[in-house]
């Protein structure tokens, strides 16, 4: 597993736990720290996982609005916690991480969904992120520089 894929996996697990436990922002750094120690004690690129988690939280409202807009038949609270947080990571990388190529952001999110989600999670994530990407290509959604 590549370092960046591992970082995305830990970020997803941390966001999942945070979401499951009620999204108390003050608890998120401790959750991430615990997961890094538990699942990747010798991991040398912890900053990437931290930047994903921080970026998702910093842009959470806009990211959630995009999920709602591009998955209208699925109210946010009815999307499984795994799929919701995989989408959050994918959208963060797609829209706010100019250094991540869009196809990498989409493919990584699909892999996370297939690994941790349900039977149709990969297709669902691919559909939502693919639609957002097409809108970005058409100029309807713009990739934004991260303000971090």
Automatic annotation (TrEMBL):
Molecular function GO labels: RNA binding
Domain spans labelled NusB/RsmB/TIM44: 7-132
NCBIfam families noted in UniProt: nusB (TIGR01951)
The protein's name in its UniProt record: Transcription antitermination protein NusB
Coiled-coil features, chain-numbered ranges: none
GO cellular component labels: cytosol
Organism: Candidatus Kerfeldbacteria bacterium CG08_land_8_20_14_0_20_40_16
Keyword Transcription regulation: yes
UniProt keyword list: RNA-binding, Transcription, Transcription antitermination, Transcription regulation
InterPro entries: NusB-like_sf, NusB_fam, NusB_RsmB_TIM44
Family (UniProt): Belongs to the NusB family.
Pfam families in UniProt: NusB
Function: Involved in transcription antitermination. Required for transcription of ribosomal RNA (rRNA) genes. Binds specifically to the boxA antiterminator sequence of the ribosomal RNA (rrn) operons.
Any GO BP: DNA-templated transcription termination
């Amino acid at each position: 597993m590549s370092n960046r894929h591992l970082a995305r996996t830990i970020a997803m697990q941390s966001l999942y736990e945070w979401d499951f436990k009620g999204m108390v922002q003050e608890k998120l750094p401790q959750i991430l720290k615990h997961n890094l120690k538990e699942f990747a004690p010798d991991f040398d690129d912890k900053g990437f996982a931290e930047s994903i988690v921080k970026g998702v939280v910093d842009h959470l409202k806009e990211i959630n609005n995009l999920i709602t807009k591009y998955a209208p038949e699925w109210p946010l609270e009815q999307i499984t916690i795994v799929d919701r947080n995989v989408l959050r990571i994918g959208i963060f990388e797609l829209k706010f991480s100019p250094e991540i190529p869009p196809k990498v952001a989409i493919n990584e999110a699909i892999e996370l969904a297939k690994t941790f989600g349900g039977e149709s999670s990969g297709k669902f994530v691919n559909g939502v992120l693919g639609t957002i990407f097409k809108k970005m290509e058409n100029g309807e959604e713009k990739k934004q520089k991260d303000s971090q």
